[in-house]
Automatic annotation (TrEMBL):
Residues 1-28 are annotated as: Disordered. The keyword Coiled coil applies. It comes from Rhizophlyctis rosea. Residues 209-501, 542-625 form a coiled coil. Signal peptide: none annotated. Keywords: Coiled coil. This is Uncharacterized protein. Pfam families: CCCAP. GO terms for cellular component: centriole. Residues 8-25 have a biased composition (Polar residues).
Amino acid sequence: MDHKRYQEQLQSLEGKQRETASSNRALKERADLLQQQRDTAVAENTELQERLLQEQRAKTSRADSGISKEDWKEMNDRLDLLIKENDKLMEQNKKERKETSRLRNEMAVQAKELNSIKQQLADTIDQLNVAKQESIALQNVNQELEKDCKAWQDELEAANEEIQASHAEKRRFLNELHVREAQVIDLKRSLEEITARYHSHVEESSALATREKELMNTLKLTAKDLEDARATHASQEAQLETLKRERDDALRVSRGLEQRLATADQQHVELYQDKEKEIEKTEEAILEKEKALLREQQAQKEIQRLSEKLKTITAKSREMAETEIEMLRSRHLAEKRRFADDMAKLETMCANLQGQIDRAIRDKRAAESELEKSTRHLPTDYDRLTMTLDELTGKLRTSERDKMDAVHKLESVQHKLEREQHRFEKEKQQVADGSEHAYRRSRKVERELEEMKEDRVKLLATIVQLERSLNSVTESKHKIAASHEAEMTALTERYEGKINELTIKLQHLGDAHGKTCRDLQVLLSEQRVMAERWKEETACLVDRHNHALNDVRQQLARCQHRSEELEGQMLRGEARRKEVMTQLADEKKAAGRVMARLRELEAALEAAKRQNAAWSARERELAEDRKRLRTYSPYVYL
């Protein structure tokens, strides 16, 4: 509306200017014409005056009674009056010519000022519109920056809370790790006790198995095969089936031997019936053997219970290790996602800030260019704006360098995180493979222990039967020593060889169990080492996370500082806009003064027109007077 009103006022001023120029041209033409008429009238008056004076001088001496002195005096007075009026008109004409020239010059100056004011008014209106748009844009940018700063503060508080939570969680995990280490130490101590007890039971079994050499010899080949299979089991699983088949063959051989022994028992039933008294004598030894067998069975049950406990402990340790690994993995993935989200947010924020900075720079440049256009007549302001522009340009370059440094730091942190993630994945895969391999080994060893336990039970049953057979054979040997001495010697040697083989088998089984226990100890040691390494890596990750978070905080502080600088620049721009508005108001006042001056000039032109009209009337009166003088001059001449 103001712009439209200004345009209407400018159009009216231009119309008035055109009217004034046309009226000035008409007045100039009229003044020139009046000047010519005045010059003509002055010349005629001068000529008439001279003629009258000459006639008066010529006729003075010969004046007759036809003209009275009163008429002559009146005519002289009238001539004097005409001369005075002529002089007065000449003076007024000079003054009017000077005034007309002055008005003409002043109108030219006012026309130039009016054109410059029109141009300045148009430029000022454009600058005002641009300044309004820039003010609205800067206010929007300020609101967005305030929102961003508030969001950054909220994110920083959330990050601090997450850091505190992560520290608490780290302390909790360290406490749990200490508890787990104590549990591992207790388990190791329990395992050592179990191993010691197992060795004691093995020693007792060895003491009892000294009489089972004959049966143990038949299983010597199977024990060697099992030992070879256990040594090469990690890389040759196919041989396990072969060993199982060989073991089945050995069991079948044992069953065949048992059948043969049963046949021998049946063959010696008659001898048993004949030698009942000697059997009664040997029952005490058999009872002692059965007690030893019961102790052996109790030891086997204890071994089985301890093996089950060891299996349970191993499974629990593995589950706990897997649970901790899964928790660490999920936590690491969550931290990685959170870091990725934080990096994406920071990159988005940096991009938004860069866009806002670019827009602010463009707006500042546009505003400064407009201000430069509007303030070209103020060199001090121009110099000050130039210095401000240079300072803002330097600050802009500094902020751009800071932004590039922050972007490079973010990229380096991201690359480091990616490398750490890749290394973590590889180590996690290695740990998982090692855990899986150890679990398979433990399961395999457990299966072998179960099989060995079954074989041991079977062998013990066979030993019991063989001992009974041996006792019966011994009793029968005493009775029929004379008739069956050679046969009993061979049978005794064969039984002693079997017992020796079974003893060797038991020793191998004890060695295998000890090796299994040692493997489990090694596995627990490896798990403890892995737990220590996980703890160290977790501490390293926490340190890197804290370092990255400190970098992000520093970048946020720099961004906040840059936002404050932009707010200061915006306030300075607002002050400059107010200054421009003040200058615009001053220019409006100057335009009002020009309009008042134009109105004064119009009034002066109207007064000049009226004065010209009065001059015209006066000239007409003078013309009438000249006509009267011309009509009167013949009478004067007569």
